[in-house]
Amino acid sequence: MSNKRFFNVQQRAIVEAAMARMIPTDHDPGAREAGAIDFVDRYLSGIGFVYAKPDGSGFEPLNGKAAEAWRKRIEILRKTYADGIAALDALSRERFGVGFTALDEQRQDQALAAVERGDAKEDEPPPLQQSLAETELAFVPLLALHTRQGFYADPIYGGNKGHVGWKVIGFPGPSSLIEVFAGRYNTLQWFAEGEAEKYLEANRGE
Predict the structure, then answer these.
(1) Which of 159, 162, 169 is nearest to 36 (CA)?
(2) Are 147 and 22 in contact (CB under 8 A)?
(3) Which of 23, 84, 88, 138 is at 20 to 30 A from 118, Cα to Cα?
(4) How far apart are CA 135 and CA 93, in angstroms?
(5) Are 12 and 100 in contact (CB under 8 A)?
(6) Which contacts qualify for 152-159: CB closer than 8 Å, 24 or more apart?
(7) pTM over 0.90
(8) Share of the chain above pLDDT 70, in %
C-alpha cells in the first residue's frame, strides 16, 4: 500500500483514537485493527486513490474535469478534518485538561458527543442515517462514515486489513477485485432472504 499520507503525527493519532470509539475493539476486532485510519489518511492525501482498477492492480488516473472536481472535493474534506480535529482536541483540553488521545474511553465518547452537538445542523441526519454528500457532512458524521468505509471496504482502499471487517460480519468476500469484475464472484448468497430471487427475476434476460 502507498505510504502517502495527509495527517501529521498528532492528527493521525487523534483520528485513529476517535475511530476506535466508533467501532471499538471488544470480542471482535475494531477500527484500529482494521486499519481504518489508513483508509482515510490515504484518501485525503490526493486524488490518486479514488477508483480502484478492475484488475485490482492499482487505481485509475484522473484527468481533466474529473481530476479538478475530485481535487475540490478532497480540499473540502481536508478542511473539515483539520478544523474538526483541532476542535476535538481543544474541547478535550478545555473540559478535561488533557488532549483527546490522553482521555479514557468514556471521556473520549463525551468529547466526541460534545463536538457533534456543536457541529450539528437542525436538518442534518445522524451518522447511521447519513444521506448527504460527504462534502456536506460535519466532522463527526464524516468521521463515522469514513470509519465504516475503512472497516468494510475492499482492502485495496487501505482499510479492512486481513478482511477483518468482513470476517466480523461473517462475509468472506472476494480474494481480489478481479474476481468480481471477471464475474467469478457474486454476493447473491449473502442477500436477505428472498432478495436473491427478486434480483434474479428483475435481471432475467439482460
Answers:
(1) 159
(2) yes
(3) 23
(4) 28
(5) no
(6) 153/39, 154/52, 156/52, 156/56, 157/39, 157/42, 157/43, 157/49, 157/52, 158/1, 158/35, 158/38, 158/39, 158/41, 158/42, 158/43, 158/49, 159/34, 159/35, 159/36, 159/38, 159/39
(7) no
(8) 83
